């Protein structure tokens, strides 16, 4: 582990300093075991809202037909599919840390779910991206950064691989500004998310982690500050469902 990693790594369930391996191994265990049920869980637990949030992400994403898009923590390929369908860029590189999640994304490709857009898949740790400097026009990431123990390093890596003027478009769970809505949401997170998760995937503990990691994650301003620290500018965000989720757009 190098010095940068040691300095910044946290336990993503608590936000407290911890070795990177703790969070990395946990995330690999959770997502490799729930990969085939992940999309069903998303649809049920968010009452379908995840689709509206993806639609919002697409409205905010400055993706043009000539762009090469890098999808970080792409999982089973939801964001890449939305990008292919609504933006039709010249190419999408769909990446994730966990091969089992990407296998589901590959199955979507085999079923023609990306239309005519060329898509490649690659196992990539966002904290150590194996691509050249300034090689992508857009980086997308949904529900990824929260799971990474070295977030400053991951954001710096995304900044590095973006071309000058390129944008990071990030969808993540966030903090509802209204205290009543926030309390209701936190009750749902703590009690009902593990229930739904256990019912659908048989792995309740993974969803206890999900709820904890959301509660421990910085709010909208906090995430914007981390992006600024990594070198991004012109950072804006838009809240969805009263701030349960937010889409940040940040430029290099
Ligand atoms: C909640 S899923 C989101 C997947 C997809 N973006 C979506 O919107 O459905 C989180 C994903 O982040 C991936 N992930 C976690 N840590 C990562 C890392 N360090 N580098 C790349 N991907 C990572 C996990 O493997 C998992 O597929």
Helices and strands: which structural class? alpha/beta
CATH homology superfamily name:
Vaccinia Virus protein VP39
The amount of beta strand, in percent, is 15-25%
Q: How many distinct folded domains?
A: 1
Helix content: 40-55%
Number of separate strands: 7
The CATH topology name reads: Rossmann fold
Based on Cα principal axes, name the global outline: globular
What CATH architecture would you give? 3-Layer(aba) Sandwich
Number of helices: 10
Describe the protein.
The protein is of the alpha/beta class and 252 residues long. The chain has a single domain (3-24, 49-176, 218-251), classed as Vaccinia Virus protein VP39 (Rossmann fold, 3-Layer(aba) Sandwich), CATH 3.40.50.150. 48% of the residues lie in helices and 20% in strands. The chain is built from 10 helices and 7 strands. The protein has helices at residues 3-8, 20-34, 38-45, 49-60, 78-87, 99-110, 151-161, 179-201, 204-216, 220-229; strands at 68-72, 91-96, 119-123, 136-142, 162-173, 233-240, 245-251. It has a 7-stranded mixed sheet, with helices on both faces. α3 packs antiparallel against α8 and α8 packs antiparallel against α9. The protein is globular, with a radius of gyration of 17 Å. S-adenosylmethionine is lined by residues 27, 31, 73-76, 78-79, 96-98, 101, 125-127, 142-144, 147-148. The site of S-adenosylmethionine (SAM) has 20 residues, from α2 and α5.
